Amino acid sequence: MNWLFFKKKKKRLKLLTNFYHSLQGDPFLTEEIILDGDLVKIEFYYLEQSKYYNALFQSRQFAVWTANQGVCRLLVDKDYYQHFAALYQKKINIFWLEFMTKVYQKEISLINRIKIAFGLVFLPCLLVVFLTLSVFQNKNRWFLWIPLIILLIFIFMINHWIKNKQKQLAFFQDQELKKTLEKIKKDLGETFFANLIEQQKKYNPEYKPLENEAEKDDNLKN
User: Fold this and answer.
1) pLDDT score at 142
2) Membrane-spanning regions, if any (predicted)?
């Protein structure tokens, strides 16, 4: 028997698809990398090429990673990219995308387990309770409390299990983030990396709305 037939196919990274599809024009830079054994294309777009430019800039999100169908797109402010281009080198991009892919796969795994728990435990239990109530509704009233109590216990157990898995996911994400930052620090050099982080903290550009955004504001005032 060919067991490869039953091998679970990993889902490709899917991230902030609303931003991904909001872009207009061509990327100013493209790269190709190998990620988790697959060829992945990275496209660089300036933030102003997105219809969400206004919201992203004002919330100080100068660089945003998006992904869909094996293509990753980085939305980055032009001035910010000129200042911190070192943080978006090909090797550094691989570090970040590896991190995001690992976390994404963990999240997908958790979602699938919750679906299985809901389908194999909660729904059958709910069905048993419904049938029990239907059969014994005209008999001993105290007996009707038993399936309801059992259902509440199952709900409590599943809820506790989900919260525990969410904590494990948060811990996993935190540990993987630390590992990723250590890789980046080692690659760039600890002093240079520390200087970049310090510059990021002080980076405070003046917001300049795009021409079309400015025109909209003028029209509203008039």
Assistant:
1) 61
2) 116-136, 142-162
